[in-house]
Amino acid sequence: PLEFTQKQLTVDYSSEQKMFEFVNQERIKRGIKPLVWDERLTEVGRSHSKDMFGRGYFSHYSPEGKDVGDRLQDAGIAYTYAGENLALAPDVTRANNGLINSEGHRRNILDPAFEKIGVGAIDGGVYGKMFTQVFTN
Prior knowledge:
The chain has about 140 residues and is of the alpha+beta class. It has a single domain (about 10-135), classed as CATH 3.40.33.10. The protein has five helices and five strands, in the order E-H-E-H-H-E-H-H-E-E. Strands 1, 2, 3, 4 and 5 form a five-stranded mixed β-sheet that branches. A hairpin with a 5-residue loop joins strand 4 and strand 5 (about 130-135). Helix 1 (about 15-30) runs parallel beside helix 4. The radius of gyration is 14 Å and the shape is globular. The N and C termini lie far apart (about 30 Å).
Protein backbone atom coordinates (compact mmCIF):
# COMPACT_ATOMS: atom_id res chain seq x y z
CA PRO A 1 0.00 0.00 0.00
CA LEU A 2 0.94 3.62 -0.48
CA GLU A 3 1.66 5.70 2.61
CA PHE A 4 -0.98 8.22 1.57
CA THR A 5 -4.26 8.77 -0.21
CA GLN A 6 -5.00 11.75 -2.42
CA LYS A 7 -8.48 12.98 -3.24
CA GLN A 8 -7.53 16.26 -4.99
CA LEU A 9 -6.91 14.82 -8.44
CA THR A 10 -6.83 16.24 -11.95
CA VAL A 11 -6.32 14.63 -15.35
CA ASP A 12 -2.96 15.56 -16.87
CA TYR A 13 -3.85 15.58 -20.58
CA SER A 14 -0.44 16.91 -21.63
CA SER A 15 1.41 14.07 -19.91
CA GLU A 16 -0.97 11.54 -21.45
CA GLN A 17 -0.12 12.85 -24.91
CA LYS A 18 3.62 12.93 -24.17
CA MET A 19 3.56 9.35 -22.92
CA PHE A 20 1.63 8.22 -26.01
CA GLU A 21 4.20 9.92 -28.27
CA PHE A 22 7.09 8.39 -26.30
CA VAL A 23 5.66 4.86 -26.61
CA ASN A 24 5.24 5.22 -30.36
CA GLN A 25 8.72 6.72 -30.79
CA GLU A 26 10.16 3.66 -29.04
CA ARG A 27 8.14 1.32 -31.27
CA ILE A 28 9.00 3.17 -34.51
CA LYS A 29 12.73 3.18 -33.62
CA ARG A 30 12.56 -0.61 -33.60
CA GLY A 31 10.43 -1.01 -36.72
CA ILE A 32 7.26 -1.86 -34.77
CA LYS A 33 3.92 -0.48 -35.93
CA PRO A 34 2.81 2.50 -33.81
CA LEU A 35 -0.19 2.15 -31.52
CA VAL A 36 -3.52 3.89 -32.09
CA TRP A 37 -4.88 6.11 -29.30
CA ASP A 38 -8.10 4.70 -27.85
CA GLU A 39 -10.20 7.01 -25.68
CA ARG A 40 -12.09 4.12 -24.05
CA LEU A 41 -8.81 2.53 -22.95
CA THR A 42 -7.71 5.94 -21.70
CA GLU A 43 -10.83 6.18 -19.53
CA VAL A 44 -10.06 2.74 -18.06
CA GLY A 45 -6.50 3.91 -17.31
CA ARG A 46 -7.65 7.20 -15.77
CA SER A 47 -10.15 5.41 -13.59
CA HIS A 48 -7.49 2.99 -12.29
CA SER A 49 -4.98 5.79 -11.65
CA LYS A 50 -7.63 7.77 -9.73
CA ASP A 51 -8.62 4.69 -7.75
CA MET A 52 -5.01 3.96 -6.74
CA PHE A 53 -4.51 7.53 -5.51
CA GLY A 54 -7.92 7.71 -3.85
CA ARG A 55 -7.60 4.42 -1.99
CA GLY A 56 -3.85 4.47 -1.40
CA TYR A 57 -2.57 1.46 -3.31
CA PHE A 58 -0.23 0.82 -6.26
CA SER A 59 -1.00 -2.45 -7.99
CA HIS A 60 -2.35 -4.10 -11.10
CA TYR A 61 -4.99 -5.52 -8.77
CA SER A 62 -7.62 -3.41 -7.03
CA PRO A 63 -8.33 -4.14 -3.35
CA GLU A 64 -11.21 -6.31 -4.63
CA GLY A 65 -8.79 -8.33 -6.77
CA LYS A 66 -9.84 -6.90 -10.16
CA ASP A 67 -7.15 -6.70 -12.85
CA VAL A 68 -6.94 -4.96 -16.22
CA GLY A 69 -9.00 -7.69 -17.87
CA ASP A 70 -11.79 -7.17 -15.35
CA ARG A 71 -11.62 -3.39 -15.81
CA LEU A 72 -11.86 -3.75 -19.61
CA GLN A 73 -14.76 -6.17 -19.29
CA ASP A 74 -16.55 -3.82 -16.84
CA ALA A 75 -16.15 -1.02 -19.43
CA GLY A 76 -17.66 -3.23 -22.15
CA ILE A 77 -14.43 -3.31 -24.18
CA ALA A 78 -13.88 -6.41 -26.31
CA TYR A 79 -10.31 -7.70 -26.63
CA THR A 80 -8.42 -10.97 -26.85
CA TYR A 81 -5.03 -9.71 -25.65
CA ALA A 82 -4.42 -6.99 -23.06
CA GLY A 83 -1.63 -5.54 -20.96
CA GLU A 84 -1.09 -2.80 -18.43
CA ASN A 85 1.86 -0.72 -17.22
CA LEU A 86 1.80 1.43 -14.08
CA ALA A 87 4.09 4.24 -12.96
CA LEU A 88 4.12 6.70 -10.08
CA ALA A 89 6.61 9.47 -10.78
CA PRO A 90 7.14 13.22 -10.37
CA ASP A 91 6.76 13.78 -14.12
CA VAL A 92 6.13 12.04 -17.43
CA THR A 93 9.81 11.95 -18.45
CA ARG A 94 10.78 9.97 -15.36
CA ALA A 95 7.76 7.71 -15.78
CA ASN A 96 8.68 7.00 -19.42
CA ASN A 97 12.33 6.33 -18.53
CA GLY A 98 11.35 4.01 -15.70
CA LEU A 99 8.99 2.01 -17.89
CA ILE A 100 11.26 1.62 -20.92
CA ASN A 101 14.19 0.61 -18.67
CA SER A 102 12.17 -2.16 -17.00
CA GLU A 103 12.12 -5.42 -18.96
CA GLY A 104 8.51 -6.38 -18.26
CA HIS A 105 7.15 -2.90 -18.95
CA ARG A 106 9.28 -2.54 -22.09
CA ARG A 107 7.86 -5.87 -23.32
CA ASN A 108 4.33 -4.39 -23.21
CA ILE A 109 5.43 -1.14 -24.87
CA LEU A 110 7.12 -2.99 -27.74
CA ASP A 111 4.74 -5.94 -28.14
CA PRO A 112 3.77 -6.05 -31.85
CA ALA A 113 0.52 -7.86 -30.96
CA PHE A 114 -0.79 -4.70 -29.30
CA GLU A 115 -2.57 -2.28 -31.64
CA LYS A 116 -4.24 0.22 -29.29
CA ILE A 117 -3.24 2.16 -26.20
CA GLY A 118 -4.90 4.33 -23.63
CA VAL A 119 -2.92 6.40 -21.14
CA GLY A 120 -4.45 7.61 -17.90
CA ALA A 121 -2.30 10.26 -16.21
CA ILE A 122 -3.60 11.68 -12.95
CA ASP A 123 -1.87 14.55 -11.16
CA GLY A 124 -1.82 14.02 -7.40
CA GLY A 125 -0.08 17.29 -6.56
CA VAL A 126 2.73 16.84 -4.04
CA TYR A 127 2.40 13.05 -4.39
CA GLY A 128 3.37 13.08 -8.07
CA LYS A 129 1.61 11.65 -11.08
CA MET A 130 0.00 8.24 -11.46
CA PHE A 131 0.18 6.70 -14.92
CA THR A 132 -1.73 3.68 -16.20
CA GLN A 133 -1.03 2.47 -19.74
CA VAL A 134 -3.66 0.07 -21.10
CA PHE A 135 -2.83 -1.98 -24.21
CA THR A 136 -5.09 -4.18 -26.34
CA ASN A 137 -5.05 -5.85 -29.72
